Amino acid sequence: MSAAPAALHTLAVGTDGPRIAFLHGLFGQGRNWTQVAKALAGPDGTGARALLVDLPDHGRSPWSAEFSYEAYADAVAATLEAAAPGEQWVVVGHSLGGKVSMVLALTHPELVASLVVVDIAPKGYGSLDRFTGYIGEMRALPLAELTSRADAEARFAEPDRAVKAFLLQNLRRSGTDWSWQANLDLVHGDAERGPASLIAGFPDLGEVSWDGPVVWLAGAESEYVRDDDVPAMRALFPRTRLVRVRGAAHWVHTDAPEVVVETLRRVLRAADPGPAA
Q1: pLDDT tens profile 128-146
Q2: Which residues contact 118 (CB under 8 A, 6 or more apart)?
Q3: 3-state secondary structure of 5
Q4: Is residue 250 among the annotated active site residues?
Q5: Which of 129, 185, 211, 272 is labelled catalytic?
Q6: Comma-separated ranges of CATH 3.40.50.1820 domains in the chain
Q7: What are 257-275's pLDDT values in tens digits?
Q8: pLDDT tens digits for range 76-113
């Protein structure tokens, strides 16, 4: 008998309205979606009840011994069920979180009212080559020598200031000790698998599909979602609507936050989450 999934760390935004959960990408945290969640909740907090989830191996959530999209989805499902027993959610997932959200809808359909997938497709991407440089930079940071966050920033090799800030949000200080919140060893081990990477891949769940409404937000400047991905998307999610966001690359919610917020408002208006079946 398998153990119950460990509780994931979450941050709640909003006091009333439909429920919406946010799942971040690799090396991200739930709080990356704070501004979008606050915009949806509105000044009085009644526009939506958002839950910003730290996925396993990220933020303040527990670490895993090995990576599995199914296990991630199970942990998210347990977290959503505990937060609002018997209710359904609009689920938003970006990149890694987008794949988790797809698996969640396919394996725990009773929890999902509608799905918004941000710039990722249900396919294998070959390897984690896009991230190996970041992983190397993080592993090279001499944690035992750090004296301050400014010292960490000065020593960190990443030249892109936005990427540096994004990655260094994973650095945690406890007294004089520094550590990575993200399970860097797990991600590094998966990257070492090359084309067999589980994180870059997508699980074979058999002959399944989910017939709820799905909005696919793809960055027009990104290569993550291609036109030839659409048949696979619609095979799993027949009610898919693909929207390409002009001027946005992979981090669509950072590049075009107004478009993302307005899209999510429309999704929330269309959704009518009720008791789970």
Answers
A1: 998 999 999 999 999 999 9
A2: 92, 93, 94, 95, 97, 98, 217, 252, 253, 260
A3: coil
A4: yes
A5: 185
A6: 10-123+206-270
A7: 999 999 999 999 998 544 4
A8: 999 999 999 999 999 999 999 999 999 999 999 999 99
* Residue 265 half-sphere exposure toward CB, CA atoms < 13 A: 14
Extract the tokens encoding 207.
């002959």
Task: Give Cα separations from 25 to 96, 117, 147 (angstroms).
Answer: 5, 11, 29
For the chain, how long is the longest CA-to-CA vector?
Answer: 54
Integer Rg of the chain from CA: 18
pLDDT for residue 2 is more than 80: no
Q: Which of 9, 250, 253, 255 is catalytic?
A: 250
pTM assigned to the model? 0.94
User: Are the C-beta atoms of residues 103 and 73 closer than 8 Å to each other?
Assistant: yes
Query: Which candidate, 216, 213, 212, places its Cα nearest to that of 260?
Result: 216
Which two structure tokens, joined as six digits, stand for 85? 């027993």
The fourth-level CATH superfamily of domain 10-123+206-270 is: Alpha/Beta hydrolase fold, catalytic domain (3.40.50.1820)
Assigned token pair, 226: 């291609």
Q: Give dist(CA 181, CA 62) in Å, integer.
A: 10
Nearest to residue 55, comparing CAs of 94, 97, 13, 83? 97
Among 95, 101, 197, 222, the active-site one is 95
Q: How far, in whole angstroms, is CA 180 from its chain's centroid?
A: 18
